[in-house]
Amino acid sequence: MILNLASLSQDTPPSVELSQKETLPVRDSQSSLQQEQQQHHQKRRHKRNACFVDVSRRLINRKILYNQCSTISDIMCFVGMTGIILMVIGNELIFAANKHNYLRIIFVLKLATTISTMLLIVLAVVYHYYALNLYCLNNSLGDWRIGLTLKRAAIIALELMICAIHPFSRQFLVIGRSDSGSTILNTSIANNDEAAKKLLSYIHFDVALGLPMFFRLYLFGRVLLFHSRVVRDVTLQSFSHFNRVPIDFTFVIKYYLQIWPTRSLMIFGTFLFFIGSWSFRACEYQPGVNHISFLDAMWLFIITFTTVGYGDFSPSTYCGRNIAALIALIGIILSAILIAVLLRKLEFSRWEQYVHNFVLNIEISKANNYASANIIKYAIALFCLKQRGRYSSFERLRIQKKLFSWIKTNQSIRQQQRNLIDTCVDRVEPSCSHALTNAINERTTQQCVLMQEKMDRLEKRLVEMNGMMESIQNFLNILLTKDIK
Fold this sequence. Notes:
The chain has helices at about 1-10, 15-95, 105-140, 145, 150-165, 205-210, 220-225, 230, 235-240, 250-260, 260-285, 295-305, 320-345, 350-390, 395-425, 430-485, and strands spanning about 175-180, 180, 185, 200. By secondary structure, the protein is an all-alpha fold. The strands form two sheets. It has a two-stranded antiparallel sheet. The protein has a two-stranded antiparallel sheet with strand order 3-4. Strand 1 and strand 2 (about 180) form a beta hairpin. Helix 2 packs antiparallel against helix 3, helix 10 crosses helix 11 (about 260-285) and helix 11 (about 260-285) runs antiparallel to helix 13 (about 320-345). The model is unreliable at about 1-25 and about 170-200 (pLDDT under 50).
């Protein structure tokens, strides 16, 4: 058997050997091409996996930094509100120090306020460190110094200055003088002869450093931003990035004013009411003088906020006047917003507007039919008088006058109908018609695509039938030629 194989191998012709030698390099080239393609696919897969790993790593780091910023913001809000409460309690004890001795308690409260302020400053620095890293991660910046722009540095400096302001245990007195001496104004309580006179430019040092602490309320806005559903929703964040709409504090405030307008205005108005009332009381404080009560300060806030000003109470210091001007300005703005919200609440809904317009249309149609019937009636009566030859009679003038009045009435009714048609079309209707048109166009496009596919299949079948007919014709020709032979 082995000899036979050897003999067969020896008997192979040279052409076969040459063909085998030629196929060897072809196979080698094909295998090398396959290996190169596999290596290329592996490199692409490796790059894709590395890209996915980098994206997942960045998303994890972003989530960690976001949670850290949110936690630090919550702690800052708690520490800042604690400092404000301690400041208010300390100033109230200072206001009552004429009757009681609270020096030790005031000292402890101011020391606690200072400690909370120092802690707040440290937390603010740490927060901006994480916030800057988060900004660099979101914008693919390699170094944090690139993200530290001049605007961001100014915002950080302003925030540190706001967090650093707090009262110390000393007193500050400023007296404004004129040509005749010091500027003096009577007490803020009208028709009270027993009250002492007040200096117009006086402000207590603790009050001057305590009122700016209310600027720390911006921390509430930051907490609201981090805990908002709009910011935490990943889908909405992606959609906003694609449409280049930044979801920031302004967007969140507009969002809550859109969905909860009354609740948002009530919360803001309540905070403003208590803060403004206490600010009036603090600005009107002078040692040894009858101090305004908190209830009177609340009444002064109300009459200033509503821009009524009965005159029974009025601020008697520059500080109180500035607070009054600011409250009056905020009151005007909030009143306008409240009126807009009430108007939106009192508007008809879409379906209520449809029903209302339908009822008005029926009433106007009835009035139009009635006016048209009267026009026809008086026109026929006038024609009959003309046929009788009574051209200058009093009855003809009366009928002609009524005819013209009903013509004018009919014209005004038709104008009302046109105005009603215009008011029926609001901002919702074009959007609905646009959506309906888009749906119809999409359906028509799908039908055209299906029709094109059917035509392509029909064309293929026609080609196949043509081929079959040609083959049958050739077969018949062959049979005919055989029969002829």
